[in-house]
């Protein structure tokens, strides 16, 4: 049987740790790329786009559609990496704090 007060205390502690992780994630930068690195997107750990860098070789009117597609692909790539980083950081911060109940995923509860 679980000790509910102990579990609630750990949930509160986990929430504090998760808040700290979210603050650290906002400071981290992750780069994604597309087109063999011709388009690079940089996002922070909260999946906010910080910059997009386009190789000057691509900058011609006829390549506009390709540049747009590569930009989207680079941003999506960077966001996927940011999401994985967030999962790893949250797991490290809360490891061993809450009981391991199969099938119970509390990640969404904390805004992960």
From TrEMBL:
Entry function: Binds to DNA and alters its conformation. May be involved in regulation of gene expression, nucleoid organization and DNA protection.
One Pfam family cited in the UniProt record for this chain: YbaB_DNA_bd
Protein name: Nucleoid-associated protein FUAX_06650
Keywords, ordered alphabetically: Cytoplasm, DNA-binding
Quaternary structure and partners: Homodimer.
GO MF, one annotated term: DNA binding
Compartment annotation: Cytoplasm, Nucleoid
